[in-house]
Structures are given as structure tokens and as C-alpha cells.
Amino acid sequence: MTTKNFFTVFYLLSPPPGVPPEVFAQNVAEEQTVELPHESIPDRHFETCIVGTVDSITAAKGGAFRVAIRYRNDIAVCSIPQFLNTLFGNISLQNGIKIVGLELPEHCMTAFSGPRRGIDGIRQLLGIYRRPLLSTALKPLGLSCTELAQIAGACARGGIDIIKDDHGINNQHFHPFEERLGRVTEAIAAANASTGGTTLYFPNICGPFEEIESQVHFALRNGIRGILIAPQLVGFDMMHYLAEKYGVMIMAHPSFSGTLFSSPSHGIAPSIFLGTIFRLFGADISIFPSWGGRFAFSRRECAAIAAALTCDLPLRRAFPAPAGGMRLERFDEVAAVYGEETVLLVGGNLLGRSSDHCTSTALFMETIRGRFGEERRQPEEPRGSSCECLPRVERNAAVDDLLRFDDFNWKNRRRTEYKPGEATGFSGVKRIELFGRSGTKTAFDLRYFEIEKGGYSSFEKHLHEHVIIGVRGSGVLFKNGGRLALRPHDIAYIGPFEPHQLRNEHETPFGFYCIVDHNRDWPVSCAPRADYP
Amino acid sequence: MTTKNFFTVFYLLSPPPGVPPEVFAQNVAEEQTVELPHESIPDRHFETCIVGTVDSITAAKGGAFRVAIRYRNDIAVCSIPQFLNTLFGNISLQNGIKIVGLELPEHCMTAFSGPRRGIDGIRQLLGIYRRPLLSTALKPLGLSCTELAQIAGACARGGIDIIKDDHGINNQHFHPFEERLGRVTEAIAAANASTGGTTLYFPNICGPFEEIESQVHFALRNGIRGILIAPQLVGFDMMHYLAEKYGVMIMAHPSFSGTLFSSPSHGIAPSIFLGTIFRLFGADISIFPSWGGRFAFSRRECAAIAAALTCDLPLRRAFPAPAGGMRLERFDEVAAVYGEETVLLVGGNLLGRSSDHCTSTALFMETIRGRFGEERRQPEEPRGSSCECLPRVERNAAVDDLLRFDDFNWKNRRRTEYKPGEATGFSGVKRIELFGRSGTKTAFDLRYFEIEKGGYSSFEKHLHEHVIIGVRGSGVLFKNGGRLALRPHDIAYIGPFEPHQLRNEHETPFGFYCIVDHNRDWPVSCAPRADYP
């Protein structure tokens, strides 16, 4: 196996007293893969590196050790949940284990795909370059949709780049998802139209599981290009799935992830989780609490997150979005660390500054432009194709609930008559496909056949079986050299490769249901009917 | 607003130096709801309690404070992600905040629904009472499907109650999901057939998002009744959704949740997260690392988790499944704490004890029975509904060519009447298996049902679809909250997971054909018929 078959996780390990670092490191490698006592692990599991391989151990500060463990891609890169599980599944329940680095071969990174638009793509949509973007959150929870839309409209008129929902706002009855999205989009569109701006809106997607896709459908139909999502609340794979399936941009929120960072000796470094991993799994923008606000990250940690989101990798660059107590007074200090490739997420300090959100926003924008200037280019034209953002056709197309019977016809079903002139080995047979070819997923098809006076079906055989139920009149089933009379509700069976034919030897129509496997083989014609008695 | 409109979260708060506990508590209440600087919060948000309300602050050990904060249900109980977000979303990123208690009004608990079967339901399936259950994990990762099936078969022959996949085993190429599930189920079924046992198998569901449901479908069609799932990896709402939609039992795994517990002053107490919350969101069995093994929980914390899973609440009780270094030598110590209502999850110490897993298992079972004894009752007949899955009869038996109709009976077919005394949710239903269970190899079964005056079928739902053809009399199909009248030769369709019931509201018998896939999933009972119009 070459190095391409492996990825490497770098841990800072703090072994318990008396446990040598080699033993502790080996325990991690085994716990995260085979999860068996050392002596029970088959030799071949070491030889083939199914067990993680401890590649290096070096002393670090405070009695800790920096350890590199190499894992086979094929045990982990198959899915996002399993990747996280291999990184930090069971060992999250131990202590003294901190992930501080992650190295993936290029083809593994691209397997997870990363941001769909990233920094460059978002700038193309906005037409804005060479300065940080400004963003705010619609809040507080509990306002009406109209009030939230007013805030959105005012901020958009003030020239804000991105508006997102507060992550606690979703489908509560104060501001139901669809109404809120409709009103807010309208307010922003009106502001954009009046100012020539390009403000984008990222609604929060956080419903019950069954509602999330319909929320995304609704958003797409309303011209939304990006969504806010908290992957620790709704699932990383859900975030990745929505980005891939619908091509929406992702603004990822760190809600519920904080305990990964709170211990210096256990968890995952913020730069790895909110930086590398969020970027890997598709975040175009990653929100994190900046230093100096009301959360606990240090300036150095924040700079490391930004670096992980923007560093050179075979993935698009993602925007760092420092948040959490960002104040206008701190702008210079903040700008010095993050530079121009950042989305400054200002909530309370913008909304709380004055009741005139347009003026507050304009003040922030002025400050940003004062320091960075701005370059504007024609924003990317939203695509106009008929295929754009169309939701996938549901496998569950509408199926008729009921086919009402009406004199041997059924509503919504067409009766097909085979042309008697054609030399196809049958005559006077009509057919109606009842169920199985129109949106159902049954393993069977139900059809109705009717044979007129003197008519007959093909004389044939096949692997698939028939079950036939008499419905009207009376007919004859020829099979295996015998004849069986069929009257209403008589039920006949035709086995695999039994040559068979149905005939009507009476004056009135002979009708029957025929049930067959949905997936079935082609019939093989048999000798002419004349062979039959 | 009454107390019913609120739920209460109990936090252990450790304010930073110089911050009074009242201020710190109020910050938490605001951060978790409106997320605005105190001075920017509209007055009416306090008056209407949109902002969380600090109800009490009492001094606790080590300079900490026990604080009760009351939140409105309607900001949080609308979805699982938003509930977790309100509990511990943004504040997870701060420090000194630990959730140590949770009180929900009854209607909120039942909104999340809790375990579908729980302790009592699992025991009914197994027919085993008055002793702890024994469980093991199929491992290690990297064995072939055949090897894993051999282990499963041996443990089942040894009398184990539950076998689960190791949580790192999913769809890797060593052991692809479908092949593994097929071989393991077969091995366990063969063992059960030879010993008369009832061993259950919980496969690990952890694919990429798009594959998870098809994995569940495959599992259901193969008779699986429960799955292993790690909610922090695949999402809590996904776990809840699968349990609700498919009626599968949930064995929940704590992978990736460990940092919630690692600090004594920040995070969520294990008993709340792995106990109350896992139970609330639908875990029938909650796995957690027991004390004395290779993980960090104390004996007291473990006992508290078990208590939270089994205490008296308006939710079914869930099984605690202590794991992680459980050894036979520790059995007495472990049994003394957990008692009989527990699933002992023994991995390495069972599989590694000897290469003869049957004997190892038998030794554990003997130890368990030696201490607790055992009570066996007839296991619950899994078929309790009018849509039930009957075991397939001999596929190669001679097949009747023709079932002659005789006054709504058919030659060679027995009419089965369900005993009206049994409280199985249906009444006055007769049934005749026409084709599909008697030597044919069709992908479908054809049955005739007859419902007497006033009778009704089970109110249920399932993945497999129904096609129904009216034969005699007239009846009503209730589905999706609507009613459809059915007369002879009307043909009705029931889609995947559409709750449905058939009733006869007339004097004369209502007869119909019902066509279903031969391989199909188990029906899930729905709410009582009385809910219907």
C-alpha cells in the first residue's frame, strides 16, 4: 500500500500517570479501528494496517506527546459519519486525547468535495472584491415575520452583503419558515432593486428531519442561493447532502460543538474542526466565535481557524466568519488578524446600535471601506436555464388512490386494443395497465385483460409466473397440454416456462386480472396454437 | 401562561471571577434565546418570556451554583435540533456551564415519543425475563462477511440475546452492508432454529446520508427488528425519524459525544445526555461506557444513567447497556449496580476469551443465570396484524393450477378467522392465502380478505405497498385521513407508510383481494382507529 491509501491524524496525547506514551498511542490506534484487547487482535490486522499505525511520537509541552497515527482510507473515507467516527468516535469518551492535525491525500479530500462556491464563488455572486464582507443575523427570536423583514430590508438598504437568520429561528409559530422566508426575501429584493445592491439571504435550515428538504425546496423556488446550517444539530452528512444535491451554498454554524474545544488536553482543535473539517464537508462560510467577545477562543486559535479555511488545499477556499461579540470599536484589531478574505458577522452591535438599522449598517460598511477600499465588478448573472435548481423528480410520483370501476373500465386508465391485423400470435385482446407502471414501487404489476368472442392471447412461456383471476364471462386457459375453464373469481396459476394461452370460446367478453412480477423476463413464443387440443 | 408551557433546564454554573451568579445565569438565559446584548432586548421579550427565565439560583459545591432556567416550549420543542440548540447550542462554546437536570411537561415528552418498544417490548420479543440480557459486538473491522457470520452464529448458539455490529463496521468493502447483513442474519436464524433461541441482530446503520434509508429498507425486508445508530454521527433527528417511520428498535451508541462529559464544570451530565435525552429521542437501548473499563465514567455516573433510562416517566423505559471493558471477572460488581433491567454489552472479553465463541457465550450466560435465574415465556408472536408477514412455505411444493371459486371460498385454500378475543387491533377479519405462500416463486402474494359487518383491519403502515381489488359487498378504506368507498372491482392503492385501515360499515360481508410484495417489511401499528374520521 502506498501513502495514498492512508490519511494521518495528529494527536496531542496526555497519558495517565504511569502509562508510557507508546502504549497510550497504540491504544488510541486500536480503539479507533478494531476495538479489541491487544492480545485478541489477529496478526493479519496489523500486517494489513487495518489497525491504525502509530508513525511517530514526539515530546510536546507540559508532559504531552504529539503523535501521528495513520489510518487506511478505506476504513473511514466511505462516509462522513464513519470518518468522524474514526477520527474521534470512542476516544471522545476517554481523556487526554486532542486532535491537532489532519492530513489527507488529495483524492480523499476531493471525495468529500469541499465548498461548492467558496470565497471566489461568493464574491462572483456579489460582485464585491478586496474587502471583508459584512453579515448580520436576523433576531431576536419571537419577532413577527414582518418585523424580521423590516430589519432585513433596512440592513440591505444600508449595503450589507449577507443576512442570515439567527440560528435559533426556524419554524416557530412566531415566524413560520415559509412566511418568514417569503417576507424577508421580498424585503431584500426590494432593497437590492432600489440600491443596485446584491445582498444575499441565508435562511436557517433546522426543521424536523422530514421537513428539511421541503424547506430547501421552498427556499430554492424563492431564489435562495445559500442556507445557514448547524451540522452538529442536523448532522454533517445532511449538510453535505443538501450542498451536493441542491448546489446551495453553506454557511455552517458551530452550535452544540463547543465541548470539543473547551479542554486544552481533550477534544479537537478549533482550527481542525471549524476549519479543516467544516471546509472538507462543504462549508462555504464557517462561523466561529472570535476572541475578545463573549466566547472562549484565543486570538491565535481564531487565526488558525481562518488559516485552515483559506490555506492552499485541493479544495475551494472557505470564508472565515468571526462572530460573537464583534463590535465596531474592535474593527481595526479584528481586521488586522483576518484581512480581507473574511465575513464579519456582527449581530447585537449592529442591530442594537440604533433602531435605524440602515444607518448602523452604513456606518459599518463605511468603516470597512475606509480601511480596505472596495473593488466592484459585474456580479455573476444568475443562471436562466430551465434545469436550474429544479428539485429531483420524486421517486414517489403521485399514484392514484383509487381506480373506480365503471363497466370493466377504470377511471384514469386507458384500454389498449391490439390490432388484429398484425401477425403477433394473438387476436381480440384488450389490455389495461392498472397498477405497477405509474409511480408505484411494487414488486408486481396488476393488469386487466379482456378477450372478445373467438379471441386468444399469445401462446408463450417465460420464467415469470402468472396469477389470473376471472372477472367477467368465461374463458379457457390452455397450459401443459390441458384446458381449464375460468369463470369469475376462479384463480389460475401459470408456472415458470409453462406454455400457455387464454381463449374466449363464448359469445360474451372474457375478462380477467393478471398479476405478474414487475421485473420479468421476455416471453418466448411457443409452437402454434394448433398444437393445442 | 401555565407551567405546562415551559420546560426547565438545571445548570451547574461556575461564573468567571468577578461575575455575580445572577448576571452569569441571566447571560445564559439570553444567549440561548434572543442572543442580543441585554440592553437591546425589547421589553415585551421579557414580559412574554421569550427570553429564558432564571427561576432559582442556589450555591453548590466548589463555588458553583445550581441554576434553574425556564424556557417556553414553543421556542424549542418544535424539533430535535432546535431543542438541543436551546439546551446547549451557543453556550457550548463558553465555559463553566454544565447541564445537570431537565424537566419537561408530559405533553412535551410524548411529542418526542421516546422508545417504541423499550424494555418491556424487547423482552416480549425475546420471551426472556428476570435477568440481564447479554449482548456482544461483531468485530473486528476488516474480517470477511463469512467470518463475521461465523462469530454471530457461534454466539447465537451459545445463547446470546442480542448481537450488534461494531459501530465502526458499516459498508466498507471488506464487509459490504447487504452481504454482511444477509450472511449474519442467516447464521443467527440457523442457530435460533437449532437451539430454539430468539437471538436478535442489530446491524449498524451509518452510511452516507443517501444510503441510510435504503440500508434500513434492506434490513426490514430481511426481518431485522432493530438497528444500531450513533446519533452524534448521523444526527439525532435521523435516529428519531427512522424509529418513527419504520418502527425499528434503536440501540443508540455514544460515539463522538465524549467531550460533552469530560469536564466536571462544562458540558452535559452523562445521565442527562445518554439517559434522559437518548430515551426522549427514541433509544430503546442506550450504550454507555461503564466504570472500571477503559473509559472515564464513575460508578455513580453510570448508575445515574441507568436510573434516567428506567425511571418513571410518561415514556417507555429503555435498557441501559453498559459497555467498554466489561469482563466476566467483574460480573458480580456490575450486576450489583445495574440489576436485572440491563443489557450487558461484552465485546473483547467474550470474543477474545477463546476462539470458541459458543462456549465463551455459554459461560457468560451461565454466570448470568447463576446469579439471576431466568424466566422464559412464549416470545411475542411477531405477526399480530391483518397485514402480517407469514413465513414462506415450501417454495418447490406442487402448485395448484386452479383454485375453483365457490361462494367466496376457493378449493384447496383454508379460510382463517382471527379470534375476536385477541386485542390485536382488528376485528371480524377472515383471510385466505391464495397464491404466494404455497410453492410459487412470484415476487407477490395474492390474498383474499373478508370483513364482516362492523369489522375492521389493523390500523397500520409499512414500507410495502398494497393493491386492493373489491370483490363483494362494499367497504371503506381509510388512509391519510381520508375515506374511500370500495365496491366490487374498484381498485385501491396504499403507498409506502400510508397509515391505513379497512372497515365494513354495511350489513353484508365486504370481500377484497389484496396483492403485496412477497418479501416485505413488518407493519407498524398506528394510533387507535378512533383518530380517524
Describe the SSE topology.
The structure is a homodimer of 533-residue chains.
Chain A: E1 6-13, H1 21-31, H2 43-47, E2 53-59, E3 65-72, H3 80-88, E4 97-103, H4 106-112, H5 118-126, E5 128-129, E6 133-138, H6 145-157, E7 162-165, H7 177-195, E8 200-202, H8 209-221, E9 226-229, H9 231-234, H10 236-246, E10 249-252, E11 267-268, H11 270-280, E12 285-289, H12 299-310, E13 319-323, H13 331-338, E14 343-345, H14 348-351, H15 357-372, E15 375-376, E16 402-403, E17 415-417, E18 427-435, E19 444-456, E20 460-461, E21 466-472, E22 475-479, E23 482-486, E24 491-494, E25 500-503, E26 510-517, E27 524-525
Parallel strand pairs in A: 4-11, 6-7, 6-14, 7-8, 9-10, 10-12, 12-13
Antiparallel strand pairs in A: 1-3, 1-4, 2-3, 5-15, 17-18, 18-19, 19-26, 20-27, 21-24, 21-26, 22-23, 22-25
Helix pairs in contact in A: 6-7, 6-15, 11-12
Explained architecture:
- Two copies of one chain form a homodimer.
- Chain A is α/β, with parallel strands linked by helices and 533 residues long.
- Chain A folds into three domains: 3-111, 2-Layer Sandwich (Alpha-Beta Plaits), CATH 3.30.70; 117-376, Ribulose bisphosphate carboxylase, large subunit, C-terminal domain (TIM Barrel); 415-531, Jelly Rolls (Sandwich), CATH 2.60.120.10.
- Chain A has 15 helices and 27 strands.
- In chain A, strand 2 (53-59) and strand 3 (65-72) form a beta hairpin.
- The longest helix of chain A has 19 residues, at 177-195.
- The first copy, chain A, is flat.
- Residues 382-397 and 529-533 of chain A have low confidence and may be disordered.
- Chains A and B meet through helix 3, helix 8, helix 9, helix 10 and strand 11 of A and helix 3, helix 8, helix 9, helix 10 and strand 11 of B.
